[in-house]
């Protein structure tokens, strides 16, 4: 049974996969169609309550909130994929350096990773934002670096474990070079660990994007980001408290789905995970 | 123990060195020219040159770095590039908001995460356990900003019990008002951080329940609960200590965001403002203090754990 089929048999994994797929599809659809133009202000319909034609109502400038949320999914998906890729590349590189090189190199990389792990992602983001100003790149790079070292720590142990396997010895004996062994044997066998971590780092990226965009260091104000939307409606929270609901629900749902997907992926790909240990879910760090 | 402490101190020193160097150099690869920025668009080249000399920006980077680090040891973090205010004095003033905020948040997180985490593990097959599990999973996905805003809607807008924003202008002169201003922000951070902690406590307790020493206790005639309380919970407490460092880092990050949500004049809000204004000396001082705090807490937590845990003592 393939890992995907096993994932599908885990009820939470199936639901999480569906939610993630729906969000990705929403982002795609919003490229071609949204109920209204998310940027079109319309003073006559400002603060319309949820109903028809504005299903989730409008904001203070009369923009349709459903359309804004749909368009915001684009930014969320972009940042999640971007940060996930950067984190994986950094994680794979540092894990390989920390697991497979000569001892002095290996151990200094491990120390370096241990030091970097102590840096909160948000502070890395502020450091980058202080130099280059805020942008989505700030989010992608800070989460990528911050989560990449986390991946490196977990994956290093996994790579070392796989590296001791007999088939690696056999590959060495048959004359494969180290990079061939890495790409043909080590990475495919350690891939489940990377995929699980990728899912969790994407959840972290979504939270970080929301937080940083809220603070003004993420998405530019011209873009419909969920975090930005939160900061825009905050000023009217005493008069229109329901407007705060929608962006928050969108963020929470996305993060929840990605976290659960990671949990389920781990369950589906790790044959050693017994029923008893299954209850131990991972503890993500607070990003924003 | 001494040997362990020595390696940890070395590690801490290395961490602080790397952190300070990273912060310093990262902020120096700025594309713009600070002196030009201060002089404004009307500044003559001579004025820009003088500002650069005044700020010491014309000297080699290594000299500037050494001077900055030298100052850190005497409590001098330099002065703001834009306002000329002392960075250390500003930080000390803002810490009067951030430190109580962080302490309250940590207390709230511990107060609800420890009991609920243990209960959800002991009852993990019952509905109570499952419900607590779902809530903690959900809370772990909630952005801090949104949690804060929802609490404002509930307690400030609908119920009108607590202020929605702000901190008394007179600071702690009126302690009751100051504490009232910190209640909602602390609960926000406490709940979100506590949700993470709860998941950790839950898995640590589940693990403890499966340990031989808890089973032996039960075999000696203790009930499962008695055995867990007497033999299991100390082990849970020890694992909680190991994640306290991460928790405190999380609270600092939460404070940066939450101070913005509740317009509290703390270190986090100062950092956000200074990053926006690109006041580099301020930003580097703030980042150094915050990351330094995270590193030092991690160090203290490690040492404490090593000192308390008997298992660490046996095979040193």
Compose a concise summary of this entry:
The complex is a heterodimer of chains A (288) and B (316). With 288 residues, chain A is mostly helical. Chain A has helices at 3-9, 11-32, 65-100, 103-117, 121-132, 136-163, 166-173, 178-215, 226-234, 245-269, 275-278.
Listing every helix as H and every strand as E from the N terminus to the C terminus, the arrangement of chain A reads HHHHHHHHHHH
Q: Briefly note the structural class of the backbone of chain B.
A: mainly alpha
Order of helices and strands of chain B: HHHHHHHHHHHHH
The overall pLDDT average of chain B reads 85
Which sheet architecture does the biggest sheet of chain B show? none
If helices are DSSP runs of H or I spanning 4 or more residues, what is the number of helices of chain A? 11
Low-pLDDT stretches of chain B are: none
CATH class of chain A: Mainly Alpha
Structural class category of chain A: mainly alpha
Largest interface, with counts of residues having CB < 8 Å to the other chain, equals: A-B, 53 and 67 residues
Helix content of chain A: over 70%
End-to-end Cα distance of chain B, whole Å, is 8 Å
Global Rg of chain B: 24 Å
- Low-pLDDT segments, ≥5 res of chain A: 274-281, 283-288
How is this structure best described in words?
The complex is a heterodimer of chains A (288) and B (316). Chain A is mainly alpha-helical and 288 residues long. Chain A has a single domain (3-30, 53-277), classed as MetI-like fold (Orthogonal Bundle). Chain A has helices at 3-9, 11-32, 65-100, 103-117, 121-132, 136-163, 166-173, 178-215, 226-234, 245-269, 275-278. Chain B has 13 helices and no strands. Chain B is globular and about 85 Å long. The chains are: A mainly alpha (288), B mainly alpha (316).
Key traits:
heterodimer; A: 288 residues; mainly alpha; MetI-like fold; 11 helices; B: mainly alpha; 13 helices; 78% helix; globular
């Amino acid at each position: 049974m393939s890992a995907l089929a096993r994932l599908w048999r885990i009820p939470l994994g199936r639901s999480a996969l569906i939610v993630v797929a729906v969000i990705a599809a929403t982002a795609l659809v919003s490229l071609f169609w949204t109920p209204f133009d998310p940027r079109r202000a319309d003073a006559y319909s400002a603060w319309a309550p949820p109903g028809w034609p504005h299903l989730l109502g409008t904001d203070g400038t009369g923009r349709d909130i459903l359309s804004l949320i749909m368009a915001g999914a684009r930014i969320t998906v972009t940042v999640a994929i971007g940060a996930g890729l950067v984190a994986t590349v950094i994680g794979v590189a540092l894990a390989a350096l920390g697991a497979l090189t000569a001892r002095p190199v290996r151990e200094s990389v491990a120390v370096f990773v241990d030091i970097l792990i102590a840096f909160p992602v948000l502070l890395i983001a502020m450091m980058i934002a202080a130099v280059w100003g805020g942008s989505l790149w700030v989010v992608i790079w800070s989460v990528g670096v911050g989560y990449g070292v986390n991946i490196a720590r977990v994956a290093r142990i996994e790579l070392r474990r796989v590296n001791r396997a007999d088939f690696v010895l056999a590959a060495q004996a048959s004359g494969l070079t180290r990079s061939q062994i890495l790409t043909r044997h080590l990475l495919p066998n350690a891939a489940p660990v990377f995929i699980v971590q990728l899912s969790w780092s994407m959840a972290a990226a979504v939270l970080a994007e929301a937080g940083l965009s809220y603070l003004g260091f993420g998405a530019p104000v011209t873009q419909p980001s969920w975090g930005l939307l939160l900061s825009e409606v905050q000023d009217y929270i005493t008069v229109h408290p329901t407007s705060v609901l929608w962006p928050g629900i969108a963020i929470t749902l996305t993060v929840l789905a990605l976290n659960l997907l990671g949990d389920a992926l781990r369950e589906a790909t790790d044959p050693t995970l017994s029923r008893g240990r299954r209850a131990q879910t991972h503890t993500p760090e607070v990003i924003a | 123990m001494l040997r362990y402490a020595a390696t940890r101190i070395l590690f801490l020193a290395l961490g602080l060195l790397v952190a300070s160097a990273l912060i310093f150099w990262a902020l120096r690869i700025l594309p713009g020219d600070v002196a030009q920025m201060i002089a404004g668009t009307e500044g003559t080249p001579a004025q820009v040159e003088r500002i650069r000399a005044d700020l010491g920006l014309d000297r080699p980077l290594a000299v500037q770095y050494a001077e900055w680090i030298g100052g850190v040891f005497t409590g001098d973090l330099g002065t703001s590039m834009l306002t000329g205010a002392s960075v250390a004095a500003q930080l000390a003033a803002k810490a009067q908001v951030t430190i109580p905020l962080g302490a309250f948040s940590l207390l709230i997180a511990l107060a609800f995460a420890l009991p609920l985490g243990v209960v959800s593990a002991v009852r993990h097959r019952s509905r109570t356990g499952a419900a607590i599990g779902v809530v903690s999973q959900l809370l772990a996905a909630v952005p801090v900003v949104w949690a804060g805003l929802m609490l404002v809607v509930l307690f400030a807008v609908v119920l009108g019990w607590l202020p929605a924003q702000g901190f008394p202008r007179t600071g702690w002169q009126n302690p009751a008002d100051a504490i009232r201003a910190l209640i909602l922000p602390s609960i926000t951070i406490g709940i979100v951080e506590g949700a993470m902690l709860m998941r950790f406590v839950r898995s640590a307790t589940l693990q403890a329940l499966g340990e031989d020493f808890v089973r032996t206790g039960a075999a000696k005639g203790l009930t499962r609960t008695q055995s867990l309380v007497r033999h299991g919970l100390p082990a849970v407490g020890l694992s909680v200590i190991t994640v306290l460092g991460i928790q405190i880092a999380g609270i600092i990050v939460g404070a940066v965001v939450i101070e913005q949500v509740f317009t509290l004049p703390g270190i986090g809000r100062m950092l956000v403002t200074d990053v926006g204004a690109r006041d580099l000396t301020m930003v580097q001082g703030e980042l150094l203090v915050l990351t330094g705090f995270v590193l030092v807490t991690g160090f203290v937590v490690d040492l404490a754990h090593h000192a308390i845990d008997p298992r660490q003592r046996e095979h040193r």
